[in-house]
Structure formats: structure tokens, C-alpha cells
Design goal:
The complex is a heterodimer. Helix content of chain A is 25%, strand content 35%. Chain A is of the alpha+beta class. Chain A has 2 domains: 4-233, 3-Layer(aba) Sandwich (Rossmann fold); 240-365, no CATH class. Chain B is an all-alpha fold. Chain B has 13 helices and no strands. Chain B folds into 2 domains: 2-64; 82-286, Orthogonal Bundle (MetI-like fold), CATH 1.10.3720.10. The chains are: A alpha+beta, B mainly alpha.
Amino acid sequence: MSTLEIDRVRKSYGIHEVLKEVSISIGTGDFLVLLGPSGCGKSTLLNMIAGLDSITGGEIRIAGKVVNDLSPKDRDIAMVFQSYALYPTMTVRQNIEFGMKIRGITPPERDKAVRTAADLLQMSHLLDRKPSQLSGGQRQRVAMGRAIVRQPKLFLFDEPLSNLDAKLRVDMRTEIKRLHARLGTTIVYVTHDQIEAMTLATRVAVMKDGVVQQLDEPQVVYDRPANVYVAKFVGSPSMNIIPGVLEVQGTVVSAVVDIAKRGSARISGVAVSPETARKYAGKRVLVGIRPENFSIAAGDIRPTLTVDVDVVEPTGPDTLVVFHCSGAEVTARLPPKQASAGREAALCVDTSKVVIFDADTENRID
Amino acid sequence: MNTEANSARRSHLLGRLFIYGSLLALAAFYLMPLWVMIVTSLKSLDEIYAGSFVGLPKAITFEAWEKAWGQACIGTACDGLRPYFINSLLMVIPAVILSTGIGAINGYILTKWRFPGSNFFFGMLLFGCFLPFQAVILPMAQLLGSLRLSGTIPGLVLVHTVYGISFTTLFFRNYFITIPDELTRAAQIDGAGFFRIFFSVMLPAALPIIVVSCIWQFTQIWNDFLFGVSFTAGQSSPITVALNNIVNVTMGRKQYNVDMAAAMIAAIPTLVVYIVAGRYFVRGLTAGAVKG
């Protein structure tokens, strides 16, 4: 059992408040990703879980035990750092053994643990090298090996992939995922890369200015973002946020948006509750549409909106089409060669995926 | 065509000749005193007084070296430099180890265990680098007196250790600041404490700067004259003071060969340290971040 409960945790440096009552709770085997831009407090939170930073208020419990006043070594955790933090004068083997030596584990047991970890990470041939003789990916592997031999209740990863080049990052990402599947240990992972969050996490906590904006499964965070900030942070290209008006006719709720020089377009069948529809009828809202929820109107299907295409950006598998709508720049992800710049395009919208936000609070309304 | 190429080559050759010529001349100029010292120390006194100063000795003799080492008179005792050489060793070895060790711990704390006001503390410590020796002599004499260390070698060890801490702290602080803080954090998570991190992680990574600190301190302390002459007397003097006394005490003819040999003996340890560890000195001074 290695659950993690972060209970109304606060952190301030003098009068400067870095974390404001953060509460997160995950179960055994969960992979929690703390996602946010730099300065949002995610690394501070990780350091507080690790015991490298003090806790100003609230409680952190690992496997049900309050660890606020425990030193890092007594928390039964292991951590992988962004710069790998390998001891430069020790060989790979010594690096992995260092913690076990301090804990007084006998040489035969140490040797066995090192061999198991080396096999698992396919680095048996590197054991006698110094960190300076390793590539970035190999160093990352050693850092993970050092964490694994600890057999901790909790793994902590602090932006472990951001020093790697793009291709290696994808490979190592898969490797971390495989490792999690094999070991089943609870993991807390800090990153500013939303792709890493989407691919790795079982739970994502999106953070901004020391506040958790949304804590949920990655797919939920993606499909039903709690507010405009989350909507824009997760997904690339990010969700289009278009100012509009909510219109109710009987049971059909529509979002009405402006198309430059073409008048208004009506996106009908938006999924909101009857109460919300009543409350917001005729009011200004923000309409959130993911780029991939646009499609080309083909055959007899009546297009939802007809637009003038501004820019076309082919990416290979599909093409990003940029146009303007209610003064906002909107990107649609369409199949290749379906639209060209300067021409008009007739588009449909998957209304079941449209998300509506309050125009003032920018929170999602259901 | 051909002549043009030839003249270009000739002028290039002339340029090279000029460069190497002037370099050689300057090198010879700077090496002259050393040359005079060596050849004079290998001559007999009669030969020197016969007028040969710069030329090679007619017959090489190590008499002057033996005399300087074991028989030359300093004050009333005629035991040569040997006891003072030992004095200097007894002073320099503990002083170098202590000042380097304390500097290393200071640098480690000032970079990895910062406390409120640690930068201010470091700034104040740096003042020590700019304090002139003369300014501390009187208070230091009083302090040594009240510690009952006046005129002793342990007293000199204390003086040099205290005076050296400013420099060694500067060295180690500037070196350790290039070592990522994540390294100490990783070690903390591995369960290492303050001293374990210092000895197992930081010190092994600091080898170049340890060498720099040792060379610097060794040279400063071995060559120091002012503290030696101010705080010791007679039998407990370091070699620099003894050398001064040898040269100044003259009975009969001035013994140039013995003076030169004595000066060589006093200079050899620092030369040896430079020759053995000099390449680490340059490497350590230019060492950047430890990438690991």
C-alpha cells in the first residue's frame, strides 16, 4: 500500500505564497503527473513530498503516515532529477550502490540488487563506467536504476526528460511507462510537457500560480477541461476559445459565433444541462472547440460554418487550417489537401465535444 | 614568381628568427640569477674571490651545500639550515592541511547549506584577502601571547591557518558553486548526512581545487618572512628567517657560495611542489562546471 495524500498543503517564502492549499490524493500504483508552466509550484510541491523543502501548512501522508517532519531518507522515497545528479567521481555501480551502502545493506545483497536493476534497464555493460563517459539517455537510465534499487513506496521524477533530445525523449517516455507497468509503484512526476502528462499519467494535476486547476484522468482533463487555462495548456495545438452567445430554442441549445464578413453561425446541440441553459440563455459565453473536432462538410451534410481560410499548415498526417471567428484565431485539424489559403471552407463541428465556459470566470459550465 | 616566393619565405624566416631570438634572450635574462646561484654554490670560495662569478666552476664541489645544510652559523649555533628546514616543514604541513580543510568545509556550507546572511558572511570573509599583513601583526601578537603560543611553531601554524582561510574559502566556494545543488539533494535522498555528502560526494569532485589550494597555501606559508620574523625567535624560526640570518652573519670573508646554496635549499620545496603539481594548478584554476 503506497498511497499519497497531500492535504491542504501550503508553502510560502516570507510573504510570497508559492502553494495555496493544495490537496491531491492518489492510490497505490497511480501515476500522478504535476503539470504546469515554470513557476507554478509543481517542483516545490515535489520537493516537499521528498522532504527537501519544508511544509508551511497542511499535511503530506505517504501510505497513511504523516511525513511532514521526517527527513528524506526516512520517507521511503526515491527521486530522479532533471540533471540526473549522478555522483561524478563514482562509477555507475558505485552510484547505484551509494544509498544501499549508507543503509548498511550487505555486499552480496547490494550486488544482487545492482544486477537486477541493470538487467531491467539494459545497462549491465555500463556498470564500470563513470557518468562522464555516458550519453544523456544512459545517464537517465542510471538515475532510474539508482531509484529502483531503493524499492521505495513512492518514485518522484522531476522533469526527467527535459535534458534529452526530442527522439530520445520519446524513447525514454515509453521506457518509463513500461517501468511503471512492470513495477507497479506509485509515481509522482513533474513536467511542463503536456504530451508527457497525457501519455504517462493515470492522474493529471494541472497547476497554475500555486493552485491545482484540475485533477483528473488525462482523457477527462483533455475532453472536459475545468477552465480556459487548462483547455489552452493541454493539447497541441491548443483548444480554440471562441467568444459567442448561448441561444436556447425549446430543448436545443446552440452557441452562436460571428464569422467575419459572413454573419453569424450557429453551433447547435451543445451539451449543457437544462438549468445551465436557462441560466445562460442569451448570455455571452466562451465556446471551446478542439482543432480535431472540425471536419470538412462533405456530401449532403449542411456545414456548421463557412469560413475564409487564412493560413494552411501541412504537418504530414494532417493539415492545420487557420481562420478567424468572433475575433479569435481558430485552428482546425483537417485531412491533408482539403483546404487552401484564401479560399472558403465549409466545416462541420462535432458538437458533442464542444465545451462551454463562463465568459467572466472562464470556468467550464455543464 | 620564384624570387617572390623566395623573398616571402625569407621574410617569414626572419620573423621567426626575431621571435625566437627575443624569447631566448628574455628567458636567458630571467634565468641569469638562477644560473649565478647554481654555479656560485658549486664553486669553492677561493675560486669566487679569484674573480669568476658567472662562468662555470673549474672544479665542482658540494662543500658549500654541505656547509649550508649542516654547519653554517646562525646566531651562536652552527648547525646549518637543517633544524630550520624541519621547523618550516612542521609549520607548513599542518597549516596547509588545516587551512585547506577549513576552506573546503566553508565553501561547502556557503554553497550547499546556505543560511540567512550567508552571502554577507562570505563577503566579510573576503575582506581577509585584502587585509595587509602589517595590519594584523600587533593584534596577532597579543592574541598569541594570551594563548601562550608566542614564539612557537604551533603559534605560526595558527597564524597561517587563520590568514589562509579567506583564500581557501574563496577557492572552494567558487568551485562548489559550479556543482549542481541536485547532487546534494540526491545524496540526501540516498540517506547521506552533512559529513557523508562532504567526504563521499563533494571532496572527490574537488580534487583540482584541493591541489590549487595546497600549492597556493604551501607557497605562501613556506615563503613567508614577516610572520616568521615577527612571531618567532632563535631556535623556532622558519627557514626564511634563518636564511636571512645566515646571509647577514659574516665572519671573515663573505661566503657567497654558502649563501647561494642556502638560498637554493630554501627555495627547492616550492619549486618541487610546482613541478610535481603545477599542471593541476592551471587545470584547477580554469576548471568549470563538473558535468556528471
